[in-house]
Structures are given as C-alpha cells and as structure tokens.
Specification:
The chain is of the alpha/beta class. It folds into five domains: 239 residues, HUPs (Rossmann fold, 3-Layer(aba) Sandwich), CATH 3.40.50; 178 residues, Valyl/Leucyl/Isoleucyl-tRNA synthetase, editing domain (Isoleucyl-tRNA Synthetase, domain 2, Alpha-Beta Complex), CATH 3.90.740; 178 residues, Isoleucyl-tRNA Synthetase, Domain 1, CATH 1.10.730.10; 92 residues, hypothetical protein PF0899 fold (2-Layer Sandwich), CATH 3.30.2320; 65 residues, Helix Hairpins (Orthogonal Bundle), CATH 1.10.287. 46% of the residues lie in helices and 17% in strands. It contains 31 helices and 29 strands. A hairpin with a 4-residue loop joins strand 5 and strand 6. Helix 22 runs antiparallel to helix 24. The chain is globular, with a radius of gyration of 36 Å. The two termini are 56 Å apart.
Length: 890
C-alpha cells in the first residue's frame, strides 16, 4: 500500500487534467435509456454559444453536478443533458462585428453567405464555454450534446410552430412591440431592461380650434406627438366635463384630433389630459383599439422620423425632440418643463433605448398555455424552490400578454411560413411546401423573420430527447427531475418550458425548479465590469483548484440568500482540500493491506472496535444520512457543512488523534481493527465528498486501490436501520470524554498555557454514567487533553484553590493551575491586551458617534465599522473575564 502513497502535497492542476481526460475517454457519464434503474434527469440551462464561464454559470453547473454525481452514487440512472443556445441577436452581433473588421457586412454577403459565416464562427469559437464547463468537472453526458440549431431541434421547432398555428395559438398581426433600432429587431417584453433615468416632463398645450384655451398634456417623449391621433381625458374629470370643443389642434402639425374619454387616464397626473399615440405606446395602442383611432407611425425602424413628422422627417428621434421643443417654446405651446425621474427601456443586448413601435409580427397566444402552466405549480406537480418565487411566477403567468416570437434578424430558426405569390395564401407547415394548396402555384416566398431564441429553448426538455419522435430516451427521462436555474430567466425560459412541455407532452417538464441566488462580491455588491469587482472563475480555479472553488460555492449556497464570494473563502477551502489529502496520506501510510479490506465488512468487526472506532462509525452514518437528506431537499450548504464538520473536526481533529495509540501500540489485533475502520471511513469520506470535490476524491480513491475502478461506480454510504445500539452507546460515551478534553483545551487557551505543559484535573460527575465513562476512558482523556493526572469523583465539591473551572454537561471540571501559570505575569499580559483593544474600540466608536460619517459613508462601510467594534467588544469582555479569574487566583 505504501508504494501507492499520495504525494506529500496536493497539486490540483495535473490531477484535474488527467481525470477529465480519463472520465471522458471512459464514457463514465453516459445515460442508459434501456436501464431499469430509477431514472434521474436534468437538462442544462443551455449557455449562449457566444458565452464564457462566469460566476453564475459556475454556481449553476456546480449545483447540477453535485446532484447528478450524488444520484449516480445512490444507484440511479442519470441523464444530465448538455448543450448550447444559438443566441440569435448576440451571435449575429458578434459575427457582424467580425465582418466589419473586414470592411464588409451581412447585406453585402447576402443571407445565405452570412448564415454560412455564422456556422463557421460557431464551429471555431462556439465550444469555448463547453470546454470551460468540462474544466469545472461537469459530468454531463457529453456524447449527447445538443445545439438549439441542430437538425433534430430544428425539426422540433418547425413542428411546434406549425401545430400551434393550426390550433389557432399562433397568429400574425399588427401590434405594438418593443423595437431595437440598433439590432433592428422586435424584442419580447422580457428582453427589455428598464432603468431609472433623470428625464423631464414637458407640458404642452393642444389648443381648441376656435377660441382661447386648450388641453395641456404632459409627456416625456414629445417627438412622438406627430403620431398623436387623439387627446384622452377621464369621463369623471370635472375639469373636462364642459369643453368648448370636442377636438384640439396638434401643435406644429396643425392637424385636428378628437378629444376622447377613457377610464385609463390618471386624473391625478398633470392636468388630466393624455396624448394618445397608438403606434408608439403600448397603453395608447390599447386605447386606440377601443376607440377605433388611426394608428399613425412616425418613427421608422432606424429610429428616424418619418413623413408624418412633416419638416422633421429624416431627423433622429432624439434630435427631433430637441428641435420640436425649441419650436413649441417659440410658439408658446410649451407651458412648463419639470425634472422627472422615469423608467426607460433598453435593449438587453446593446443597451439602445427601445422604441415602442407598431409592426406586423408573429405572436403566440400565451394565456391558454399559461393557465395550465400556472395550475401545475398550484397543484404541486411542479415545485418552485424556494417557495417565495411562486408569487412572482403567478403574477407574471396570471397577467401574461401575447408573446411576440418573430425577430428581424437572419441567424435563428426561420419561421416556417410561406406566402403564395399568385393568390396571397399563407402556408404554415413543418415541411417546406412545393406548391400552394389553394392555387397550386409554385411561386412561394418564405417569411424572412426568424423565431425568438427563447422559442426553441422553451422546447429544450423534450426536443433534446428526440421529440417529435417517440424515443426511448424521452420515455425514460421525461419529465426531468429538477431544473437548476437563476431567477433572472424564470420568465424567459422556465415559464415557457412549462407552457410548451404541458401542451406538447401532456406533463410538466420537471418536478422541481430550484431557483438559486446571485453570486455577489465579498461586500454583497452585484458584480459588474464597470465596478471592477468581477471575479473570474477560471482565474480562481487556476490559483486554488477546482475542488476548493466548487466546495466554496456549495458551502455558501443557502436557499434564498445571495452568495458573498471572495478569494479568501476559496483559499480557506483549499486548506480543506489539503486537510483531506493529508488525512488520506496518514491513513494509507498506516495501512496494513493484507486482510484489512476483507475484514471491514464482517460483523465481527463491531465487537473488536474501540470507543473511537465506534464513535466515528456512528458519526459517519449520521453524516451520510444528513448529506443525502440535504441534497434531496436541495439544501447544498447544509450538505457541505455536514461534510466539512465531519471530515475536518471529527475525523481529522478527533479520530486520527485518538486512534494513534492503537496504530503505534504493540497489539496487532487492535492495529488491524483500527486500520480497517480508518480505511472504511476514508472510503466513505471520499465517496460522500465526490459530488462536491470530484478531482481530489478520485485521486485519493485511485491511491487506495488499483483494482477499484472509478469512484463513480461506488455506492453512497447507507446507514443500517436500525443503527446498532453499541454505536449509539459509544456516541454517548465519546461525547462525555470529548466534553472534558474540550474544556481542558479551552482553559489552556484562556490562561495562555502551552499545550506541552502537563496539567492535573478533577472531574466531579453528577450522574453514574458520566462517572463510569470517565473512569473507563481515563487513558483517552489523559492522552488527548495532555493531562498528567485525572481524578474522577461523584457529587459536588467546592472549587479547589488556584484552579480554573468549567461547567460541562453532567459534570464540573477543575484544572489545577499552580506551577502552570505565572499569575502576575499573565495578569499583566491580559491588562495590556485589554488596553490595546479599548484603543481600537475608541477609534471605531468615534466614527459611529460622528453624524457626518454616518450620513456620508456608504451603508456597507458603516455596517463594517459597527461589526468590527462589536467583535472587539466581545473579545475585550472575554479577556476581562479571564483577568478576573487570574486575579482571584493570585
């Protein structure tokens, strides 16, 4: 065994590269659609083909990998379906920038050549994020990798579009949509990011045709006034009950437009007059439809003014705003300008201000689909975790608007609709038609628009498994088990998958939706390039290793709470990786290979176990149960915490120390039993940690036995039911001994006594169990607490002179200090330390008492100072308590 000993130090980079290659070569992560094992499946949220790994990806995929590796170890047949999204607008923008560098553009290339260029780009650069996910240790079924534009998924998209159209759930019509003048495409409501902007509210008078006066309207977008086709007032508004005319004149244009009455108007806003521009505002569009108003478009697809703007035609919309305001002011129509903070929509890709625009688009009737998707969550067929996100889901689903699915770009799934050049018939079919079904003409022209990227992504849970064909993969793994996703795509993606899955598969696409939180910087701020606080996962991995990074993410992934990430935390868990490595080295160094593994599984082993052997076995069983329960409930941090506590504090700090007398003693049977338990415990540890830290655990497993194969084939520890009474009794005994040892160690720390100084102690037990246990386990207490004597009595005694005391469960402990502590010297040290802390506290208190500091400093800085003062105060009080004890002894 010693020939296969791990190296003295663990260096992750070579280890990780080697195991990544071995795992992939051995096809370890391949799902089996013919297996009779319990099925467990996850579809990866497909990252954009343009993407690179960021913290969100790292967290999301670490969680998925933990779940998949855990279920494999539990004996399930696991499918983790990988793939990437074609990211229509983003990818087209990337390729267009590349073409611009070559002094050409897509229009010069033409559609066919441009699409070829995008596919070439995808083949060359589109796999970057997939390779980075592999770098993270993601155990996806890589042989099944899908792409939202591959042949199978394209067939699914066309089939879905055609079916929805023939079911009356897809239609084409003029509708107000969000338009990006830069990307020159429609955007779904969810693709518009709103931000508060310092703007202005302009009060403009629309005069009556005859006589004085008029109606004053307030607007933030005066450039749209050229598209006004009415002024609306509330029917109950007394100010506009008896108007001198039912028309007003549109300033600068001279057109007469009607005054209409509509309950949508907010009487408390301004003068209660609302300009109605049906072609350039979604609310005005609805008003216009109710009143039969003309829909006059005055801003084109490039954001420039059209003929309806008169002399302003050809101007950029924002230039027109300035020029129109100058003229309005000159003619006396601009009555007032006031500052006004309002929300401005921007394109989620290029940040251009979005223009609400009247356009002929393709829409999905979302409400009938959304009702069933909402009901599926209400009746528990799909759970959203944490449950707090359900309200947000229902609010959106219950108030859903029709989904604009057409995009005016070239890269994407081209809409399978054709128009007959002879009779104008619209043909929508999954397969390309050869002739018009109405007039049999072969003169057919396909729709130039492509589908919204999220349309194909909405089919992901079943299209990736072979739908519309009834495949064994689909039969085995749909519905999927859990979806792990960020809250930012709860509507973009999750809700739409729910709608499409229920409609086309007759069942929900996943049983659980786990919505994870954000990864923020160490001060809790959102990471952004402009702030310079972005942490690059690959750089962190390069410095600290993948296992430490993954465990950090899991350890802080509490449900509903954002993760504050810092490299210091990752560095801390790098120490945990090293601790595990060194523990494994210690175990294997002391391993007696002959017979150790075979003896582990025998019933006789329990009879031969020492107290610490039984205790660590009990704690192993309890930890295994706790980890499995936590992962089943998607409480990643609880699972990580249980493992950390068991491995570092119980196995390494306690068991490895307590077992040394058996390892280094003269009793061969005791040594054999101790090494058998050590081996079995280490085997269980690397198995339980494997989902979190796959690389270092695989490396240790390989060192433990050449014949074992991959760790993925091992089984997760299963506690016996019931747990043997001998183990639970050992747990009670060990707890008592550990309480005594811990109390002695604490007194050493408080009194600044070196661990090498032997001490005398007295334990006064309050019950027979504690007394018998301490008498029986005295040698262990002497060894681990470094005592030269331990007296055990039953009942209460007065505190001996010159001793330090501690209350523990079931007993009182006294440690004799004479000869171990120089009381006057220790008192002087404590007094000096207390004064130093009080000086530091005074600095922090001065800041917190300064009103200017409290008013001007950022909230996080104030809180940091308050926390530091609290920490210093707590530390000072502990030292004062120790000083008081010392003074009483002197």
């Amino acid at each position: 065994m010693s020939s296969n000993l791990p190296d003295k130090g663990y260096e992750p980079h070579d280890v990780e590269k080697r195991w990544r290659e071995k795992w992939e070569e051995s096809r370890l992560f391949s799902a089996d659609e013919t297996s009779e094992k319990p099925a467990y499946s996850i579809v990866i949220p497909p990252p954009n083909v343009t993407g690179v790994l960021h913290m969100g990806h790292a967290l999301n995929n670490t969680m998925q990998d933990i779940l998949c590796r855990h279920r494999r170890l539990k004996g399930d047949n696991v499918l983790w379906m990988p793939g990437t999204d074609h990211a229509g607008i983003a990818t087209q923008n990337v390729v267009e920038r590349s073409l611009a560098e070559k002094n050409t553009d897509r229009h010069e290339l033409g559609r066919e050549k441009f699409i070829e260029a995008v596919w070439e780009w995808r083949e060359k650069f589109g796999g970057a994020i997939v390779n980075q996910l592999k770098h993270m240790g993601a155990s996806c079924d890589w042989e099944r990798e899908r792409f939202t534009m591959d042949q199978g998924l394209s067939e699914a998209v066309r089939t879905v579009f055609a079916r929805l159209y023939h079911e009356g759930l897809i239609y084409r019509g003029n509708y107000i949509i969000n338009w990006c003048p830069r990307c020159r495409t429609a955007l779904a409501d969810l693709e518009v990011e709103h931000e508060e902007t310092d703007g202005a509210l302009y009060h403009i008078e629309y005069p009556f045709p005859d006589g004085p006066g008029g109606i004053v309207v307030a607007t933030t977008r005066p450039e749209t006034m050229f598209g006004d086709t009415a002024v609306a007032v509330h029917p109950d508004d007394e100010r506009h009950r008896d108007l001198p005319a039912e028309e007003v004149i549109l300033p600068l244009a001279g057109r007469r437009i009607p005054v209409i009455r509509d309950e949508y108007v907010d009487m408390s806003f301004g003068t209660g007059g609302l300009k109605v521009t049906p072609a350039h505002d979604p609310n005005d569009f609805e008003i216009g439809r109710r009143h039969g108003l003309e829909e006059l478009k005055v801003i084109d697809d490039d954001g420039k003014m059209m003929a309806g703007a008169g002399r302003f035609e050809g101007m950029d919309r924002f230039e027109c705003r300035k020029a129109a305001l100058e003229e309005l002011k000159a003619v006396g129509a601009l009555k007032k300008t006031e500052p006004h903070d309002h929300s401005v929509g921007r394109c989620y890709r290029c940040r251009t201000v979005v223009e609400p625009n009247l356009s002929r688009q393709w829409f999905v009737k979302a409400k009938p689909l959304a009702e069933k998707a909402a009901q599926a969550v209400r009746d528990g067929r799909t759970r959203i975790i944490p449950k707090t996100w359900e309200k947000t889901y229902f609010d959106w689903m219950d108030n859903i608007r029709d989904w604009c699915v057409s995009r005016q770009i070239w890269w994407g799934h081209r809409i399978p609709a054709w128009t007959c050049g002879e009779c104008g018939e619209t043909i929508v079919e999954a397969e390309t038609p050869s002739s018009c079904p109405r007039c049999e003409s072969a003169s057919l022209e396909q729709e130039s628009d492509v589908l919204d990227t999220w349309f194909s992504s909405a089919l992901w849970p079943f299209s990736t498994m072979g739908w519309p064909h009834e495949t064994p993969l689909l039969k085995t793994f749909y519905p999927t088990s859990v979806l792990v996703t960020g809250f930012d795509i709860l509507f973009f993606w999750v809700a739409r998958m729910m709608m499409m899955g229920i409609h086309f598969m007759g069942d929900v696409p996943f049983r659980d939706v786990y919505v994870h939180a954000l990864v923020r910087d160490e001060e809790g701020k959102k990471m952004s390039k402009s702030k310079g606080n972005v942490i690059d996962p690959l750089s962190v991995i390069e410095r600290h290793g993948t296992d430490a990074f993954r465990f950090t993410l899991a350890a802080f992934a509490a449900q509903g709470r954002d993760i504050k990430m810092s490299e210091k935390r990752v560095e801390g868990y790098r120490h945990f990786v090293n601790k595990l490595w060194n523990a494994a080295r210690f175990v294997l160094m002391n391993m007696d290979r002959d017979g150790a593994e075979s003896e582990m599984e025998t019933d006789a082993l329990l009879e031969k176990m020492s107290l610490t052997d039984r205790w660590i076995t009990l704690r192993l069983y309890e930890t295994a149960a706790r980890v499995s329960e936590a992962l089943d409930q998607l409480r990643f941090n609880d699972a990580a915490s249980a493992l950390y506590q068991f491995v570092w504090h119980e196995f390494c700090d306690w068991h490895l120390e307590a077992v040394k007398p058996a390892l280094y003693g003269d009793d061969p049977d005791a040594k054999k039993t101790a090494t058998a338990v050590l081996f079995s415990t280490l085997k269980a540890i690397v198995t339980m940690l494997h989902p979190f830290m796959p690389f270092v655990t695989e490396e240790i497993w390989d060192k433990m036995s050449d014949s074992k194969g991959f760790l993925i084939h091992e089984r997760f520890p299963e506690p016996p039911s019931p747990i043997p009474g001998a183990l639970t009794e050992a747990g009670r005994e060990m707890d008592a001994v550990m309480d005594v040892i811990t109390a002695v160690r604490n007194i050493r720390g408080e009194m600044n006594i070196s661990p090498g100084v032997p001490l005398k102690a007295l334990v006064c037990a309050r019950d027979s169990f504690f007394e018998k246990t301490l008498l029986k386990r005295r040698d262990m207490a002497l060894n681990l607490a470094r005592l030269k004597s331990l007296e055990v009595k039953k009942g209460e005694v007065e505190k001996p002179p010159k001793s330090a005391s501690a209350e523990i469960k079931g007993a009182a402990l006294f440690v004799f200090l004479e000869g171990a502590v120089d009381f006057s010297k220790e008192a002087a040290r404590l007094e000096k330390e207390i004064k130093k802390l009080e000086r530091e506290m005074a600095v922090h208190s001065a800041k917190l008492d300064n009103e200017k500091f409290l008013a001007r400093a950022p909230a996080d800085i104030v809180e940091k100072v308050r926390t530091q003062r609290g920490f210093l105060l707590e530390k000072r009080d502990r030292l004062k308590e120790s000083l008081l004890k010392i003074q009483k002894q002197a």
